Amino acid sequence: METSFALTGKGYVIVASDTTAARSIVKMKTDEDKIKVVSPHLLMSYSGEPGDTIQFAEYVERNLRLFHIRNNYSLRPSAAASWIRRSLAQSLRSRKPYSVNLMLGGYDVTIDSPHLYWIDYLGTMTEVPFGAHGYGSYFALSLLDRYHDPEATLQEGLATLKRCIDEVAKRLVVSPGKYKVKVVDEDGAREIEL
């Protein structure tokens, strides 16, 4: 019953994810942070099997950090997304593939541009202006399609995100209670209150 949303605007990417960790009908935690800051200008929202998600997020974080140490520069969002997609595609051919869906939001400081990538557990990747994963995506994608504005300010983007969260709370049978929201822009990644 996981839900995550992300959208781009004028100079930023907002990523939101519910804080519930559950398996089948059992709720294990209500304060799980499913958005990882994998580099100063890169956020990753993940959902899937509980063990896989955390392990894969840490694997990505460590490998992007290793790249930075070896080469003295960080990967741009498009290159990081391609590397993550390849890692998921390679894991499909292993004995224990990762079952992780994710959205990667980043701010490319070299061209001053926000980017959002939607990646699923099969290694499918595409750059999108907005995206969603989980059961909440059935309700949120139509709202994002109608109200998303690529030139929106941060406050307008947060208002659109709030609409999505309210709609999921109203219409989804087992709706998540709390969400974590993080933003990445030219100043880096940070958590904000909604």
From TrEMBL:
Gene3D superfamilies: Glutamine Phosphoribosylpyrophosphate, subunit 1, domain 1
Keywords, comma-separated and alphabetical: Cytoplasm, Nucleus, Proteasome
Keyword tRNA-binding applies: no
Subcellular location: Cytoplasm; Nucleus
Highest taxon of the lineage: Eukaryota
Keyword field contains Magnesium: no
Coiled-coil stretches: none
GO cellular component terms attached to this protein's record: cytoplasm; nucleus; proteasome core complex, beta-subunit complex
Signal peptide positions on this chain: none
Pfam families (alphabetical): Proteasome
A biological process from GO: proteasomal protein catabolic process
Similarity annotation: Belongs to the peptidase T1B family.
Binding partners and assembly: Component of the proteasome complex. The 26S proteasome consists of a 20S proteasome core and two 19S regulatory subunits. The 20S proteasome core is composed of 28 subunits that are arranged in four stacked rings, resulting in a barrel-shaped structure. The two end rings are each formed by seven alpha subunits, and the two central rings are each formed by seven beta subunits. The catalytic chamber with the active sites is on the inside of the barrel.
Function, in words: Component of the proteasome, a multicatalytic proteinase complex which is characterized by its ability to cleave peptides with Arg, Phe, Tyr, Leu, and Glu adjacent to the leaving group at neutral or slightly basic pH. The proteasome has an ATP-dependent proteolytic activity.
The name this protein goes by in its record: Proteasome subunit beta
Organism the protein comes from: Lentinula detonsa
